[in-house]
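Input structure tokens:
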């Protein structure tokens, strides 16, 4: 009888503990790390108060971190409005947010978010750049940053340094050096996928 009583007590106490363990697991599985999603020039044209920003696509109310490439200062901002996309900027910051990262009018920034929408671009790569080493030019990726270029046909990939600006063209997304093109077995050109080659993911403590 005592054994049946103990079994009955244990059976009654299991569901709350089981639910607690499941809840902890779910929390851990949905806790996404900060990851680099975009880079480019930030402007300070909006007049909103507080640590806020405007972006063409990010959801209003969402939070992102904006890091100044020049001085490594960063700030967490709330997206308060959506703005038309422009070739000369990726995000527009409020005065307070711009001051927090000591922004000037030519500073490039890295945008970090907890979204899975990591920067990715598909298109045609050319091999017209005359430069030694693993290098490339791109219309708007930050000069000095690293990009991972993947050959869409054979899966080969290479990390290149962006050394300059490429004139935007409908027939290509990036121009590679001879060494980079050889690493991809790309010949004079071919379809590629471009992703950022920052250290990912970014932890909350950084």
């Amino acid at each position: 009888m005592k054994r049946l009583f103990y079994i009955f007590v244990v059976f009654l106490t299991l569901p709350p503990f089981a639910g607690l363990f499941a809840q902890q697991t779910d929390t851990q599985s949905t806790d996404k790390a900060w990851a680099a999603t975009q880079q480019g020039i930030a402007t300070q044209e909006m007049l909103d108060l507080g640590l806020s920003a405007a972006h063409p696509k990010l959801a209003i109310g969402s939070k992102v971190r904006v890091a100044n490439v020049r001085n490594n200062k960063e700030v967490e901002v709330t997206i308060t409005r959506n703005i038309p996309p422009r070739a000369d900027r990726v995000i527009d910051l409020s005065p307070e947010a711009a001051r927090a990262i000591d922004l000037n009018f030519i500073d490039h920034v890295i945008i970090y978010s907890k979204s899975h929408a990591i920067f990715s671009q598909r298109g045609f790569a050319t091999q017209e750049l005359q430069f030694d080493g693993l290098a490339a030019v791109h219309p708007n990726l930050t000069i000095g940053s690293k990009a991972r270029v993947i050959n869409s046909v054979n899966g080969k990939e290479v990390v290149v340094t962006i050394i300059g600006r490429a004139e935007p063209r409908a027939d290509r997304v990036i121009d590679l050096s001879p060494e980079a093109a050889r690493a991809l077995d790309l010949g004079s050109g071919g379809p590629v996928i471009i992703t950022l080659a920052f250290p990912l993911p970014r932890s909350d403590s950084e």
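The chain has two domains: 35-113, 120-196. DSSP finds three helices and twelve strands in the chain.
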